[in-house]
Design goal:
Length: about 260
């Protein structure tokens, strides 16, 4: 066994101070990754800093042309938000498909993005919509935030405070879930934005979430399921594991891309 000190600060400044006080301190948000890894002795933080009590890290609001979601907002709150349902139904749909009710009512959007599981749903939305990750130190475009499987640009004492999602002209999400975990075997998020069409794929890449240039080019020319289906998906660089090999996931990308475009309608 090992000892862990539990802290529940009431301010962001106090949380950062606690994180800075030890090289082995970890942030606790929803706890769906940290707590199981601790139970299995795959992680042994000296201090656990629970940020769920910090009021200004929670909630959903509109700011100009963006939806701003606090880091400790749960998946269920995103799924049920009237603002998200109105401004970006695809994001609400994505949140509603995460895990089971117990997971959705405890897991948080900030925790999911900070963990950057290669099969998580939110990274596809962040990359597909061109979101900005707001932290205690800076603001990072999604392209600069994700840095490989389970890796992000976050520093050890840096905390996600909010995510800013620009409103898209249209967006859709489709995933093929693992029947046990509900994680994405493959998930595809498509969006028509002011900067053009963006397509983000989760669950399939060896290095985690990525944008697919071929699908983006095809859908920029004609935003239709047929255009998405016309793109040849290479298995190069795709994940192979006990759930499916790279060729299987390549086919799923094509199928999920067509379904995501259909979902827009």
């Amino acid at each position: 066994m090992y000892q862990t000190k539990y802290h529940k600060p009431d301010s962001l400044e106090a949380a950062i101070a606690l994180l800075s006080s030890s090289d082995e301190a970890k942030v606790l948000a929803g706890g769906h990754t940290l707590l199981p890894t601790m139970k299995n002795h795959l992680a042994a933080p000296s201090d656990v800093v629970d940020i769920r009590g910090i009021a200004n890290l929670h909630g959903i609001c509109e700011d100009g042309g963006s939806i701003v979601i606090g880091a400790t907002t749960t998946h269920a709150e995103v799924a049920d938000s009237a603002l998200v349902l109105s401004a970006c139904p695809a994001l609400a749909c994505l949140a509603a498909g995460i895990g089971d009710p117990a997971v959705r009512h405890a897991g948080t959007i900030g925790g999911s993005l900070a963990n950057n599981d290669p099969a998580a749903d939110y990274p596809a939305a962040a990359l597909g919509l061109g979101a900005t990750i707001v932290t205690s130190q800076r603001e990072l475009p999604a392209e600069d935030f994700f840095d490989g499987m389970f890796t992000t640009a976050l520093e050890d004492d840096e905390i996600i405070t909010a995510i800013r999602f620009p409103k898209a002209e249209a967006a859709g999400y489709a995933k093929f879930p693992n029947p046990a975990s509900r994680y994405a075997m493959v998930g595809v998020f498509v969006a028509k934005t002011s900067g053009g069409v963006r397509v983000a794929v989760t669950g399939a890449g060896e290095d985690g979430v990525f944008r697919h240039d071929g699908l983006e080019a095809a859908l920029a020319g004609e935003f239709s399921p047929e255009a998405a289906g016309s793109v040849g998906i290479s298995p190069d660089g795709l994940l192979s594991d006990l759930h499916g090999d790279a060729e299987y996931r390549a086919n799923l990308i094509s199928v999920m891309a067509k379904r995501a475009v259909k979902a827009v309608a």
